[in-house]
Automatic annotation (TrEMBL):
It comes from Pseudochrobactrum asaccharolyticum. This is Thiamine diphosphokinase. NCBIfam families: thi_PPkinase. It is an enzyme of class 2 (transferase). InterPro entries: Thi_PPkinase (IPR006282), Thiamin_PyroPKinase_B1-bd (IPR007373), TPK (IPR053149), TPK_catalytic (IPR007371), TPK_catalytic_sf (IPR036759). One of its GO terms (molecular function) is thiamine diphosphokinase activity. GO terms for biological process: thiamine diphosphate biosynthetic process; thiamine metabolic process.
Length: 218
């Protein structure tokens, strides 16, 4: 196990990823792990992972040769966790207190996208700081209390509830809300826009805020 005082980890996943200045700033100083084909994002981000793990069923020969020097942990294809979940557990084993999941959206596997969102919420319930990004989209879990977001004006965002939300307040948005109840499955909190510093307060329930900060620049 590698020990370090550095607690921020970047995990490269196999979904879509667009390299933006905002993303590069967010990952600055992070230790890096790659999960299977997530390694293809390393070059664009200008990083070299300290560990590459997974079953390598979606890694082609060219990528394997390019990063042959990186330490690997190889797992069987038939296993009880995805490569991304294995990488997340490894990050916490190595002392992570903050994790960025890059390449967490898109691709051909909607089930993996859902897993990454729910996995992030589960870790937030344990008091861990976790963030997801594709470069174009970002997601942050929302639990009890107040959360302030550093998002550009006119950023499109939605709040997705995993259950009924109570006492939800949204300030600094085009369509503010004040201590409302949002039933599970409601579209009330989709497609809002940031107008100043965005602050979200939640009394009960679990949700995740998905934002598209690049849209503010188009």
């Amino acid at each position: 196990m590698i020990c370090s005082s550095m607690s921020k980890f970047l995990i490269l996943l196999g979904g879509d990823l667009t390299v933006t200045p905002r993303l590069k700033q967010q990952i600055a100083g992070a230790r890096v792990l790659a999960a299977d084909s997530g390694m293809r994002h390393a070059a664009g981000l200008g990083v070299v992972p300290e560990l590459w793990l997974g079953d390598f069923d979606s890694t082609d020969a060219a990528l394997a040769d390019q990063y042959a020097h990186v330490e690997r942990q190889v797992f069987p294809v038939a296993k009880n966790m995805t490569d991304g979940e294995l990488a997340l557990h490894e990050a916490y084993e190595r002392g992570a207190t903050e994790v960025i999941l890059a390449g967490a959206f898109g691709g051909e596997r909607t089930d993996h996208t859902f897993l990454h969102l729910s996995m992030a919420v589960a870790q937030a319930h344990k008091g861990r700081k976790i963030f997801l990004s594709s470069g174009h989209e970002e997601a942050t879990p929302l639990l009890y209390g107040k959360t302030e977001f550093d998002l550009p004006e006119d950023t499109l965002f939605s709040i997705l509830g995993f259950e009924t939300l109570t006492g939800l307040s949204i300030f600094g948005a085009e369509w503010p809300l004040d201590a409302v109840t949002v039933p599970f499955g409601s579209s009330l909190t989709l497609s809002n826009r940031v107008k100043e510093t965005l602050t979200v307060t939640l009394e009960t329930g679990t949700a995740i805020l998905v934002a598209s900060p690049v849209s503010a620049l188009i």
